[in-house]
Amino acid sequence: MVSTTDPGRVCPVTVLLLVGPPGAGKSTLAGQVRRRWGWPVVCLDVMRAAVCGDAADLSATALAVQLAVTAVAEHLTVGRSVVIDATNAVAGDRRTWLDLAARHGARTVAVLILPSLATCQARNAGRTRVVPAEVVATMHGHVRGAVAVLPGEVDHLLTAAALRRLLTTTPDPSPDAITGRSQRQHREGT
């Protein structure tokens, strides 16, 4: 992808935006990216816990997002790719990260993590911090609705399976490894 701030430069950093309902496996996948590629993970649940001591306290979300934005901006400023571990099910939530990436000239890659609702509900029930079943169902519906618009919002869209394959085959991801495009295609915008 060509940088929006400097069209002659291939973006060196990535904002990897995980998109999935509670129980989809976002945090597990984020941990795999951190271990394999060394990318920092900014997790909204962790930020909520930092704000009020409870990752499940949704009243702390606004302050948690402010902390997360600061953390992501710091990573991007020093040229470090970063993983956003949050549901990102609603366009407005994704817009926060997409705008931040654009301001830093970073490319955006969304990873769609959408197992069946039954799978999400079962995984959620086994967690120490259980999200109410109706919230899981609502978020699952939002993510299903996002499938049609995600390709127009981000520079590249991957499935969770595609990212897992990259994690097993790519020791140090370049823009080409993730997008499958050549440098020439990046420069030409094709």
Description:
This protein is an alpha/beta fold. The chain is 52% helix and 12% strand. It has helices spanning 26-37, 44-52, 61-77, 91-103, 117-125, 133-146, 150-153, 160-169, 175-179, 183-188, and strands spanning 14-19, 41-43, 82-85, 107-112, 156-159. The protein is globular and about 40 Å long. It starts with 13 loop residues before the first strand and ends with a helix.
Shape assignment: globular
State the major sheet.
5 strands, parallel
SSE order, as H and E?
Answer: EHEHHEHEHHHEHHH
The residue ranges in which pLDDT falls below 50 over 5 or more consecutive positions are: 1-10, 181-190
Helix content: 40-55%
**Major sheet: arrangement of strands:** 2-3-1-4-5
Topology overview:
Elements: E1 14-19, H1 26-37, E2 41-43, H2 44-52, H3 61-77, E3 82-85, H4 91-103, E4 107-112, H5 117-125, H6 133-146, H7 150-153, E5 156-159, H8 160-169, H9 175-179, H10 183-188
Parallel strand pairs: 1-3, 1-4, 2-3, 4-5
Briefly, what is this?
This protein has 190 residues and is of the alpha/beta class. It has ten helices and five strands; from the N terminus they run E-H-E-H-H-E-H-E-H-H-H-E-H-H-H.
Please supply descriptive tags for the structure shown above.
190 residues, alpha/beta, five-stranded parallel beta sheet, disordered N terminus, disordered C terminus
